[in-house]
């Protein structure tokens, strides 16, 4: 998956969505029912792509960079259920190729210091959204 595809997949899982009306499409942040107006002629993918970088709508409507920003991906991870957190750690271990889980201290250090892009991939694998 490209970084953009990862960001959009995580954003949709978190709750970013496109609401369709007869005249406009709206990009809504998590928990909102109204959002910023976008042209009716744009596809959902085109709308999400517009909001991957700062734009005239301000910083509140930029989809977080889950693949580079540890704070953003940590915030996303907080939405995992307890069961999914166990799978998430297993996915981190798989991606980091941690062969010896009995070396507990080293494993904890590597998992805790995993970069944002690794954590994003593990999150998407946990949610079966990885392509």
Structural overview:
This protein is mostly helical and 131 residues long. It has two domains: 17-61, no CATH class; 70-126, no CATH class. 47% of the residues lie in helices and 8% in strands. It contains six helices and three strands; from the N terminus they run αβββααααα. Strands 1-2-3 form a three-stranded antiparallel β-sheet, with helices on one face. Helix 1 crosses helix 6 and helix 4 (82-95) crosses helix 6 (116-126). The N and C termini lie close together (6 Å).
Question: In terms of topology, how is this protein built?
Answer:
Elements: H1 3-14, E1 17-20, E2 25-28, E3 36-38, H2 44-50, H3 70-77, H4 82-95, H5 104-112, H6 116-126
Antiparallel strand pairs: 1-2, 2-3
Helix pairs in contact: 1-6, 3-6, 4-6
Summarize it.
With 131 residues, the chain is mainly alpha-helical. Helices cover 47% and strands 8% of the residues.
Descriptors:
single chain; 131 residues; mainly alpha; 2 domains; three-stranded antiparallel β-sheet; 47% helix
Uncertain residue ranges: none
Whole-angstrom Rg = 17 Å
Kindly report the average pLDDT value: 88
Helix content: 40-55%
Terminus-to-terminus distance: 6 Å
Percent in strands: 5-15%
Domain count: the total is 2
